[in-house]
Structures are given as C-alpha cells and as structure tokens.
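Record copied across here:
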Amino acid sequence: MSHDNNVDVDTPLTPTFIVIMLPTDYAAVGGIVTVAILIYSFLRLLYNAFLHPLSGFPGPLIYRTSRLPYLYHMARGDLTFTLLPLHEKYGPVIRIAPDELSFTHPDAWKDIYGHRVGNNHNVLELPKARRFYRTRGTLPNIISEEDRAHHGLVRRVLSHGFSDQNLRARESVITGYADTLIRQLRRFSVSSADEEAAAPARRIPMNLTAWYNWVTVDIISHLTFGEPSGCLDRAERDPWIEAMNGTVLDFIPLQILAYLGFDGLINRLLRAFMNTNRNHRTCTRNSTTLKKIHSCGDSAGSELTISMDDIDRKLTKNPVVTMADPDLVEKILQKKDAWNLSDDEILGNAAALLIAGSETTATLLAGLTYLLCKHPQVMEKLKQEVRSRFASDSEITLTSVLELKYLLACLDEALRLYPPVPIGPLRTVPEGSGGVTIAGHVVPGGTDVAVWHWPMFHYSKHWERPMEYRPERFLQEDSAGPRYAGDMNYTNNTGLYSADRLDLLQPFNVGPRNCLGRNLAYSEMRLVLARMILNFDMELVEPETDWIGKQRADFLWRKGPLPVYLSPVNL
C-alpha cells in the first residue's frame, strides 16, 4: 500500500476505515437539519393556511398558521382583549389558532356548552379541552372533571347546597358576615380624633380588594366547612386561600408548555410530585392525628403545604355523618363510600369551592365599586334608591334587595364590563365524531372552541356603546319581577339600548357545567353592595388610575389593591 493519504480502491472497508470516512463537518450536518426543519415548518404553515379543515374560517393569517401569536398574548395576559378587535374585523366566528375557533355568535352559548340534541345527538356534551384544564392542578374536582357521569354525581350532591331554598335557610350566615364587614370597615376607615393635639378625625384608605376577599372567604369557608376562616376578624387574608389563588394564576407558564407539546411531560412531573408526598396526603377515617395535605406548587415547582384539619376532623370524627344541616364537605362525605370517592377528590372539591366561591365574587364587588366611584351620577342614583328604601342593615335581606332594580342593573352592567372570569372556557370537538354544528358552521373533530367572555360582552354588534358603563341598558319597564344575567329570555324593551342582546350576558356560563355557585354569588353581591351603599360614601384614593385597564386577564384577573376613602353614614 502506498504511503500517501489516499485509500487504495482495492483495500477492504474495515471498521477503522468506515469511522475515518464518516462526515466530520458538524456545521454541515447542522445546516442540513436546520434546512429540513425550515422546510417542514414552511410546509406546515402552508397546510394550516390552505389545506387544514379549518382553512375556510376567517382570521389573521399569522393566527391561522401558527399557535405562537396566541401564546405570546397569553403570556402577556391580554389574549382576551386581543380577540375583540379581531371579532370586530372578521365577524362572530374566527380562527385564532390552527386548531381553535372563537365565537361571539348568539347561538354559540347553547351549541358549545349546552346539551346537544337533534342533529348533534352523536355528541351529548362537548368535553373540556384537556390542554387547558389538565395543567390547572392534579387534584380532581368538579371544575376539571372530564367524566360526564361522575361530574353529574358530584354536582347533584353539591347543587342542593347552592339552591335558592338552601341559601335562604342559611341567610343568617351571609348576613352575619356582611354585618362583620360593615362593622370592621366603620372601625378602621376613620382615625379617632386627638383632642389633646387638636387633630380632627381623618379618613384612612381602605383596600377594598382585600376586604371583599375576606368577607367572601369567610362566607364560603363557613358554608364549606361549617366555620369561618377568620379573615374579617383578623383583618388579614388567610395564607391558605391566598396560596391556592396564586397557584391557579401561576399555571399560565405550564399551560403554554402544554400547548407547545409538553403536556405529557408536565402531567408526569405533576403526578410524580404528588406521589412523592402521598404519605403526607393520606387521610382515612381511622387517622388520629392532623394530616398535612399537599397541593401542586406554583409555576416554579415549589411545594405548597396546606393544613387541612377541618377535612381531617370530618374524615375521622364520624364515619356516618348525621348532621341535620350538613355543610358542603359533609354532603360529599355522605357519598364517599357509595361513590368510591378518594380523599384527593374530597380535598380537590373543597379547594375548588373555596377558590370559585370567593375569588370571583370578590373580584366583581371590587370592580363594581371602582366603576361606581368612576361614575358619580350612577353612584348618586344608586345611593338614592338604597337609602330611600332602607333605614338599617337589618332591613336588607336576600328577598328585599330584589326590589332594588337600579342596583340589579348596576350589578349586571358590571358583570358585562368586568366579567370575573374574562376568558373563554374551552371545549373540544371529539375526534371521530364526524364534527358538530356550532352557530351554523360544521366544526371538525379535534377543534377547540369557546365563547370568550370579554369579546362577547363588548362586541359592538350586540351592545350599544359597549365600552361604557351604562346600567340603564339593563332596566326593565315591565313588572315581571327581577331578572339577572344568565336569563336566556332577558330582553330590553325600549330606549337607546333596545337592540342590546342582554340574553348573551352569561358570566356564569350555560348548560350542565355552568357555575354551580351562581345563586350564592348573586346573593352575596346584592347583599354586600346594598349594605356598603347604605353605610358609606365612597371615593377613590387614586381617581386618575385606570384600575381595570392595567390588570392582566389570565384565567382570573390579577387585581391590585383598590384604595378607597370611606365616609361612614349615620343611620
């Protein structure tokens, strides 16, 4: 063999020579891979734009071809705001991602969230979108439950606790905490006069975001566990509730990762995290010591330890609950064995009740207070209605407050302008279903669909002056009795807003999975608002601040403090 560097053509290709002849230009290999990825991505974009089953639906090209713009606005917390101008431009049905549609069409409420009959009998109910709900935590609960039959069982147990009849029976609980709220605000809102220093009493800014949270947490804690959290008495937030609310909000990064295709990995990590703490989370009726139950942590993966002595006592003290007036957890425990409910399910549903039953109601009360303070003419009219009807707090009951038509209109208009849940609850058209008809459009399987609350409630085709706070749009001239958001037959009669689609205001959703606590939320909102108006004149500490406009709208609003001066009224 010659001594030069060339390989003789007759030399056998031994393994040594094969290794020597392999490409060593990694930059070239990387370039080939990059080009291949770019070609694939380009072809994928072309497919999404022109060949995808949803290619016929309107929307911006960049949204129709890629999920990235959607995720960008989700990360910014302004996705629901971004969709409104898109609907104004493209119409009531738009494509906002390669496999997702957003609706502001009037028929979408029932077609997406209602029971499906007739031509759609092959799909009785559109299931919840897994990518949206599965990254919200690992504990099973009525909000994330996918199984239709099991959801119905748990809902039937809890629904009685939220019925009008039961709430009237528990009215003293709600009014009691409303009384405590007023008493504490009267105590803290004005400093005592200093006679020696000749200093008059002065107003102290009250953070009503916090106070509304405290009263709603105390109410739902009492209804859920039979005792309050003590927030109002301590004048501080319960760290357990605060941690759970933060956990719900901080799942946005995990949700973005799920959309990028990492949902399987996320779920495995969350399950592994929960299993690691399984020994701490075990609660049985034979346990004799306080157990610590762990929930999923925040987006950084930190552990959240929750002391659940209330649930532990109920699991241990009495194998068969026999209370004549059981709270919500006890109602679940009564069915624990019959329905094979796990301790995780009991905890998950208790946590869901606490969050959903406090945060959303407090959000609306804070937003409504802000809107009233920003519209002094509306505030004056409301004060006149309340103070001319009631002389004391004891006169304001769940029944008597229904006579305040202007108050109810103010409440409904706040729900429209500042819905407690600003996003759209996602549903998925099942694969292999042959598609379903939504708002007159055949939507293929595998498509996520939703009515996004903010766009629906601000869409100019449905609302006159949609960005303005105008309670008069909800005033009724007939005497058919009080109406409220969620009434599908709710219509206006005459005037500037006669064409408004009041029936489309569904802040608590519709169908078999609508908000279970709607009646409780309305009861609290009406009662607390009426008593606040009766007892205080209110003034924003920072009237120039756009309190709503500066908030992020994730699954819930990321509210900041709402400092308000309260001037007590002598009753």
Residues 174 and 219 are 6 Å apart (CA to CA).
